[in-house]
Specification:
By secondary structure, this protein is of the alpha/beta class. The chain has 2 domains: 9-36 and 261-361, Aspartate Aminotransferase, domain 1 (Alpha-Beta Complex); 41-258, Type I PLP-dependent aspartate aminotransferase-like (Major domain) (Aspartate Aminotransferase, domain 2), CATH 3.40.640.10. It contains 11 helices and 13 strands. Strands 2-8-7-6-5-3-4 form a 7-stranded mixed sheet, with helices on both faces. Strand 5 (152-156), helix 6 (168-177) and strand 6 form a beta-alpha-beta unit. Helix 1 packs across helix 8 (247-256), helix 2 (63-73) runs parallel beside helix 8 and helix 9 (260-282) packs parallel to helix 11. The radius of gyration is 21 Å and the shape is globular. The structure holds pyridoxal-5'-phosphate. Pyridoxal-5'-phosphate is lined by residues 31, 85-87, 111, 156, 160, 185, 187, 211, 213-214, 219, 224.
Length: 365
Amino acid sequence: MSDRIAPRDDLTALEGYHSPQLDVSVRLNTNESPFPPPPGFVDAWLEELGTVPLHRYPDRSARGLRSAIGESIGQPPPRVFCANGSNEVLQTLLLSYGGTGRRALVFEPTYALHSHIARITGTEVIVGSRRDDFGVDPDSARALIEQHQPEIVFLCSPNNPTGTVDPPATVAAILDAAPGLVIVDEAYGEFARESALDLVDDDRALVVTRTYSKVWSLAALRLGFCVAPPWVVAELEKVVLPYHLDVSTQLAGITALRFRAEMEARIALLVEERERLFAALDELDGVTVFPSGANFLLFRVSTGPGGEDRGHAVWEAMVERGVLVRDFSRWPGVEDCLRVTVGTAAENTAFLSALKDILREHGAR
Ligand SMILES: *Cc1c(COP(=O)(O)O)cnc(C)c1O
């Protein structure tokens, strides 16, 4: 007999996480860096890799990587925990601090994986909402926290998909009210002026997560980390699989930090391009663009093809012109919105001219 066994009851309603990929010439949909790693990085990395004994397990606690990261951001290594992408960091945090009978609070619209991973780990998700400007309101956050007493509160700053940056005062107010961990996902932190990193302290239940996927041009390698009090890091190390972070990833993370100057130049360039895109979108009739501290911009279309479903119709028309952005038009709270990743200057220009064509064809000036 081969009846298929069903998964856990609480998983049957879940769908996997998807970000559709299409074969187009201008791909501005997944917030990666438009640039490959700096010249010299791969050679330097392979040279390091040539020196390690591959028949031995890697350093289980990634000491070299943790001290290199700690040094680069002015944090002691015992506060650094590394994993295969910041999503694995989030999963480990939820395995340690979430679970059956526990709650995580998120403020929608935000990064879908926070609630997705929470549910996979059996954690109940409490959904708060953001203000119309997509900021988290400290007073309503405090009220929700008092009501639900969540073990985990998720912030995302800059927030994906809106780009909104929460000021440190908001983070501090939420920390003050929260009975458990406050996790600030700063996957795009390097593109913003404000960060919660300086608030991390040995005696405060604050965790800030970062990734090599966006700013460090290493999405293919899967490396992320968090900065947290050492007593949190110790719990994460208990829960994560032994030797989860392979030696090539550890060495890539250390080696990348030697190319900091190149990375900072790219950040400056992408921020400059973001501001150019913002100004151009802001001038278009029928488009509302939201301020962003990240390497992407969210914009709402209020004209164009498609009638009631105009956001999606504009997305389709963009695809026909070879430009792929991310379609959020059917998401609650960001109806008719699309998200464009800041690409190279040429890609951004191609995106703008496709959008202008589409809007012009449909009667906007
Ligand atoms: C892209 C992104 C991540 C990155 O995940 P990795 O696993 O590090 O690639 C994390 N959080 C947010 C909000 C993101 O947009």
